[in-house]
Amino acid sequence: MSRAVRAVGPGLLAFVVYIVFSGSVNTYNIVTGVVVAAVVGFLTANITVSNPGKLGEVGRLGWLIAYAIRYFFIDEVRAHVDVMRRIVHPRMPINPGIVRVPYAVSSDYAMTTIANSITNTPGTVVVDVDTERKVFYVHWIDVKGVEPEVTRGISRVFEFFASRIFD
Predict the structure, then answer these.
(1) Strand order across the beta sheet in which 124-130 lies
(2) Does residue 122 share a domain with residue 103?
(3) What single string gives the DSSP state of each residue in 86-112?
(4) Of 55, 71, 96, at which residue does a domain stop?
(5) Could you report the per-residue pLDDT of 55-102, keeping only the tens digit for each?
């Protein structure tokens, strides 16, 4: 595939991010956004896109949108409420520790998405990744157990969506 075809995905993403963060849609921002997006897309095309055919699959975009809605409006809210409850509780009920969380996705993008989702969710932080054993080491604010079936609860939803988006 040519570099121009590979540049479409990163370029569109850069354009959308530019427009969103500029805060307005006018001629100047659209022209500047297109120029910035073209440069970013061209410079990052061979680094970020290994299979440009996946960019055209509408189903993946649907899963991405479903994941974003689920993550920002359900998982993040639940985690924030849980951490706030622990903070204001008179005894501050925490049981911190580092646990192994197995994962089964194959692509680096999916693995990175899961690790970022865990880290961005209050109460959990990925501190290390063992790609050979396919486990994340996660600092968890309230360790409920160290068995894989317990710790997989940390990443189960994230892995479900990441596998459909990237694998």
Answers:
(1) 97-102, 135-140, 124-130
(2) yes
(3) HHHSTT---B-EEEEEE----SHHHHH
(4) 55
(5) 778 888 899 899 999 999 999 999 999 999 999 998 889 999 999 999
